[in-house]
TrEMBL record:
GO cellular component terms, semicolon-separated: plasma membrane
PANTHER family found in the cross-reference section: MEMBRANE COMPONENT OF ABC TRANSPORTER YHHJ-RELATED, MULTIDRUG ABC TRANSPORTER PERMEASE YBHS-RELATED
Gene Ontology molecular function terms on file: ABC-type transporter activity
Taxonomic path: unclassified sequences, metagenomes, ecological metagenomes
Organism: marine metagenome
Protein name: ABC-2 type transporter domain-containing protein
Keywords from the named record: Cell membrane, Membrane, Transmembrane, Transmembrane helix
Signal peptide positions on this chain: none
Keyword Protein biosynthesis annotated: no
Main location: membrane
Transmembrane segments: 30-52, 79-98, 110-129, 141-157, 194-212
Amino acid sequence: MAYIFLVVFALVNGYFFTNTFFLYDQSDMRALFSIVPLVYLFFIPAVSMGVISREKGLGTIEILATLPIRDFDLVLGKYLAVFTLIFVGLLTSSIHYITLTFVGTNIDHGAIFSGYLGLALMGGVYAAIGIFSSSLTDNQVVAFIIGIAIVMVFFLMDQLLVFVPSSMAGIVQYLSTGFHLSNISRGVIDTRNLIYFLSMISFFLFLTTHNVESRKWS
């Protein structure tokens, strides 16, 4: 199933890149970098929805709990499996970068590097959210819906600034994954953006580990 989602991910990205390159005569990666976060909204919850919920549904989570490994190690292993899939998906889009390089277009290699870095970090956050959602239920569909809901909240936060008090605007903007991605994609690799992404990953992995631990005593 993961390979199916990976193929779909590559095809969608390829479609939008091709449209931009051939139909609109734009020889850059901006369109691709703007569409990948939207693909993430569905792709990542889909590939992570069964990571833990499937184990719960089959009853194998109790078997895993008896293994001589820490709960965090179990969660981290599953997280790395999902993140690796996301990373491979990003690698498939590197063919577009290679294409632009060979056709001799004047591209900003630094901006492309920072764009990929931002997408990888955003994917890491959404993977942690997806696994957390999967730990909340034994139903994969429910986990998928919860994952999409949480991911969309963080993705759209900076679009909701007009609806929040000015005193809260800074906090809401800081919590937005889109805000930090846009900063990095412009080539601004600020430690504050890196700290945000890494903190979000750690936070949701912590919550997931707590849910797995509590399962032992339920």
